[in-house]
Amino acid sequence: MRAALLSFVMLSAIVVCGLGIYAADAANNHQAVDGYGVTAALR
Known about the structure:
Elements: H1 2-28, H2 38-42
């Protein structure tokens, strides 16, 4: 049970951080850098 809760919290944090990167990209009209090349691959 503890491992499932930890996994859920970690995945939630990753999703929230990812949404923050893309929201900052859209709000400021510049290309955000996520360190993994995902935003560069989408353009």
